[in-house]
Amino acid sequence: MQLNAVLHSLPYFSDSAALFAPFSAQSWAVFLDSGHPRSTQGRYDIIAANPVCTLVTHGDHTTITCANEVIVSNENPFDLLQSELTRHGEIFNSSHLVEFDLPFVGGAIGYFSYDLARRLEALPNLAEDAEAIPEMMVGIYDWALIVDHETKQTFLICYDDARIENFKAQPARHSSKGGEKEFSVTSEINANFSQHGYAQAFQKIKHYLKEGDCYQVNLTQRFSATCEGDTWQAYQALREINAAPFSAYLNLPDVKILSSSPERFLKLTGRHVETKPIKGTRPRKINEIENDAQITDLKTSPKDRAENVMIVDLLRNDISKVCQKVRVPKLFEIESYSTVHHLVSTVTGELNANQHALDLLQHCFPGGSITGAPKIRAMQVIEELEPNRRGVYCGAMGYIDFNGNMDTNIAIRTLVQSHDTIRFWAGGGIVNDSKVEDEYQESFDKAAAMFQVLKRFQK
Q: What is the DSSP letter of 187?
């Protein structure tokens, strides 16, 4: 039996956090957040919960749960997700919604961790897996709330007529009961590198660069603290401090993800592909003259421009595996956020006719802006030198809908809570002319918003 999508208009929410709040504690609740109204660089917010199917990858096995049926497979998780999307897309007919220009008509939402790359490439197994969470967690949703901040409209899309009347009456009826414990941070924030340890790893990278192993390696340090209570409260603080266009809050079993990412990984609309790698960062200044000087310094920096071009070339190569007409329409643009300025470029292409969104994601995964170049050798060096696996950090999260459209972020500026511990990471690309003091400080500049959030809730 085929179910047709039903679309209904709801009152507009300028701040979608208020719309998501009643769902925040529900099973597999997801909020893809443009950061509006504090950030105006994004257009849409997407909210969903209680998926009809879930895919969870641990190591070599993916558990697919649909209704009361559970299947465990060791096949490629990207291929498994594509198969389930196709199967559910045949059940949930959304073809008549094309004229509404919606970004999402139901489909997959979730995360793909950095370590999912182990299913694609031969990487050493050296770093500690302190989080011990799945490499992929994706739900397939037969309903979503979509807020369009450009047209100031809110839509409910679903494949069950009964939902319409419930949402028309009061969306909050679907909320779970309150009573969540207040969020608090119960320890000091600790780093997995000392400054001396970071310097040793930095020098080892410099050795590899000199020997010609790599042109650039992204080196990251991880920060962690123990915590308790409702992470939705912490996310609301994060989006207040550091609103960003590719933010997300995912309430998944045993793991909560709080992301305020400024970086798009891959967007696919029809056959049009876009990626926007970030390479080059300066902290914002309160003084206007000093702040303008930071922007000028970043835009004219030979080092940052060279790093940016390296990653643009890497992404052009990745995209060209499944695309034609690959171009770079924008190079070295400045984008400014709450705590930092970034140097951003744009790469586009047209997806080949025989390829799917998940083929594109798989061939480009993980994003080159957070590995270095060449990608595989850089990832091998990262595994050797970073004490802990990255997990969700530097992976991707976002959606792939039944029509094949996709939008994903690079999971930077991201907090991950599991097992009563909350963790976040920050780092940067190391090249031949990098200075250890500058790179070490840059990691703290990038992590500033996360530090602010956790210190706000520290006991």
A: S
